[in-house]
Amino acid sequence: MPERNELLLRLSRFEKQFFPRYEKSYRRLVEEGQHPKTLFIGCSDSRIVPYALMDCGPGELFIARNVGNLVPPWDMSAGFHGTAAAIEFAVLQLKVQNIIVCGHSHCGAIRGLYDEPPPEATHLRAWLELARGAALPDGGSPGELRRVEQRSIVIQLERLMSYPMVARHVQEGKLFLHGWYYVIEDGQVLVLDADSGRFEPLQRQALAAPAAATPTEIDAGHWARFGSGA
Ligand SMILES: [Zn+2]
Fold first, then answer.
1. Ligand 1 mean position to 2 CA, how many Å?
2. What's the CA-to-centroid distance between 67 and ligand 1, angstroms?
3. What confidence tens digit (pLDDT) does each residue in 89-111 have?
4. What is the per-residue pLDDT for 160?
5. What is the pTM of this model?
6. In the predicted model, what is the mean pLDDT of residues 135-161?
7. Is the pLDDT of residue 205 over 60?
8. Maximum mean pLDDT: which of 74-78, 151-155, 204-208
9. DSSP H helical segments within 89-173, as ranges?
10. How far is the CA of 70 from the centre of ligand 1 (A)?
11. Is 13 helix (H, G, I), strand (E, B) or coil?
């Protein structure tokens, strides 16, 4: 079956081409253990490539991906809370210094707030409720969806602060939270500004090409308490 062959071919390329390039790094990371400084919470969307966005290699990012880059509430109930477990591991054991919540344009999860998944997708329908607070009443026009995608990032950051270990490390100045919005079609990441509560293009004074995107205002009332970022 050709699909299987394709998968095995790609695996072979990893073994023959990718791994040799990073072999020393991998061996060091095994001997010394991993010490990533950043937890990246991103959408499962196939168009998001965290290592490309961050220009980094093995050992540099601890990644938790799920549908919609959503953060469940701090919850002591029984259950299999995968994203919560990743946050606890990153903060308490790896002692990461940064948590990035990275949303993106054309997110199917945000679209799902207006165009609901089939009834059989019970877990998906429940999961998307974590973004419901970002929805705007005017519905799903492209411009509105962009705002909703960004508003959801702010909500997830606020929810991160409901994790006791996150709040504690932020208050102690050991941990900084970041909101990023990746515009897939532009190859541009807008960064949530702690002071203005807006998603702004990167300031690239040293580069020739000016940032082109228009900042989008976000009603992020509590953003300031996340700290100013690092
Ligand atoms: Zn998405």
1. 29
2. 6
3. 999 999 999 999 999 999 999 99
4. 98
5. 0.87
6. 92
7. no
8. 151-155
9. 108-111, 122-128, 142-160, 164-171
10. 9
11. helix
30 alpha carbon – ligand 1 mean position (Å) = 32
CA of 172 to the centre of ligand 1 (A): 32
Question: Could you tell me which residues are beta bridge partners of residue 179?
Answer: 101
- Predicted confidence at residue 202, as pLDDT, reads 84
**Which amino acid would we find at residue 68?**
G
Q: How many residues does the chain have?
A: 230
What does the angle CA 15 – CA 18 – CA 21 come to, to the nearest 5 degrees? 115
SS (H, E, C) 110-126: HHCCCCCCCCCCHHHHH
In the structure encoding, which two tokens stand for residue 8, read together? 């095995």
Q: Lay out the sheet containing 176-183: strands in order across.
A: 61-66, 38-43, 98-104, 176-183, 188-192, 198-201, 216-217
223 touches 192 (CB < 8 A)? yes
CA of 100 to the centre of ligand 1 (A): 15
61 CA from centroid of ligand 1 (Å):
19
Q: What angle do CA 85, 38, 40 make, to 5 degrees?
A: 65
Rounded to the nearest angstrom, the distance between the alpha carbon of 220 and the centre of ligand 1 is 21
CA of 114 relative to ligand 1 center, distance in Å: 14
As beta bridge partners, residue 98 has 38, 176
Q: Which of 154, 159, 34 is nearest to 102 (CA)?
A: 154
